[in-house]
Design brief:
This protein has helices at residues 12-25, 31-42, 58-72, 77-81, 105-114, 133-141, 154-166, 208-211, 227-239, 257-264, 289-292; strands at 83-86, 89-92, 123-127, 146-151, 173-177, 188-193, 240-249, 267-274, 280-287. With 294 residues, it is α/β, with parallel strands linked by helices. A 7-stranded mixed beta sheet has the order 5-4-3-6-7-9-8, with helices on both faces. The chain contains 11 helices and 9 strands. This is Release factor glutamine methyltransferase. Keywords: Methyltransferase, S-adenosyl-L-methionine, Transferase.
């Protein structure tokens, strides 16, 4: 898509038509919707606001064209717009973190079902927090809770801190840069985590949007995809309060292997909650009584 392909009047309808065609040729799903989202981003409006923009200025056209070409190269839409929706929030995202996904909302749904009494949740820990999506969604729901988010990446920790500030939650959480729970003391009512779980050999077969742009450190689960789960299971017994629960995201086909690791670590498997696609996504654990009392 080049500027000389566009009508001289820069009519938004014609611009969107050409952009959608370019994205469709590149194999992008929902090309017209994505073109509209990109144009709305350039024009600093929303989709309904596009109805009032018949004419697009030349400078805006150039910015839009550049974004369309980047999306045609399968750079994630959220990286281009700088934000993504999760739960009831709009979060800043960057190439330092995974793009929050709707499947991960299954963990928050499980938490709300298991802890309908919001006074029971006062301390929340999110290991591998990324954008902070899990921690911040939980804090929005549990108004009396305080939380900690941990991420190995300084850039991710800074981004999660900004998201907490934008949502008015920075006074109720601490975001720290660290290696899983090595620097964490005390016990929590809830531990959340979406760890890396893609087997290393499978990374090359991921969709180009993920493979070529999202951070591999947040995807690579080692040779069998279970490396991060092994580390998590080692620390969960000392992190959970006696009545605490852990809710951990699973990858496809891990609904047997990860619970087995949890049981070996002295954890009790309460349930596995499926996402909207029917895939076992949220593993719910609690410590056995004798483990929790240590």
């Amino acid at each position: 898509m080049k500027e000389n392909d566009l009508p001289g009047i820069h009519n938004s309808r014609d611009i969107l038509h050409l952009a959608a065609r370019r994205l469709s040729q590149a194999g992008i799903d929902s090309p017209r919707r994505e073109a509209r989202l990109l144009l709305a981003h350039v024009l600093h409006t929303d989709l309904s606001g596009l109805l009032t923009h018949d004419h697009v200025e030349a400078g805006q056209v150039r910015r839009f064209e550049a974004l369309v070409e980047r999306r045609a190269s399968h750079e994630p839409l959220s990286y281009l717009t700088g934000n993504a929706g999760f739960w009831s929030m709009t979060l800043e995202v960057s190439a330092a973190t995974l793009v929050p996904r709707a499947d991960t909302e299954t963990l928050i749904e499980a938490l709300l079902e298991l802890r309908p009494d919001h006074d029971r949740v006062r301390r929340i820990l999110d290991l591998g927090t990324g954008t902070g999506c899990l921690l911040l969604a939980a804090l929005q729901e549990y108004q009396h809770a305080w939380g900690v988010g941990v991420d190995l990446s300084p850039d991710a920790a800074q981004l999660a801190t900004r998201n907490a500030r934008q949502l008015g939650l920075s006074g109720r959480c601490d975001i720290i840069c660290g290696d899983w729970a090595q620097a964490i003391m005390g016990r929590f009512d809830v531990v959340l985590s979406n760890p890396p779980y893609i087997p290393h050999a499978d990374l090359g077969g991921l969709m180009p949007d993920v493979r070529d742009y999202e951070p591999h450190r947040a995807l690579d689960g080692g040779a069998d995809g279970l490396a991060s789960y092994r580390l998590l299971m080692q620390c969960l017994p000392r992190l959970l309060s006696e009545q605490g629960i852990a809710i951990i995201e699973l990858g496809i086909g891990q609904e047997h292997s990860v619970p087995a690791l949890a049981r070996e670590a002295g954890m009790e498997v309460l349930s596995i909650r499926a996402d909207l696609g029917g895939i076992g996504r949220a593993l719910v654990l609690r410590p056995h009584g004798e483990v929790a009392k240590k």
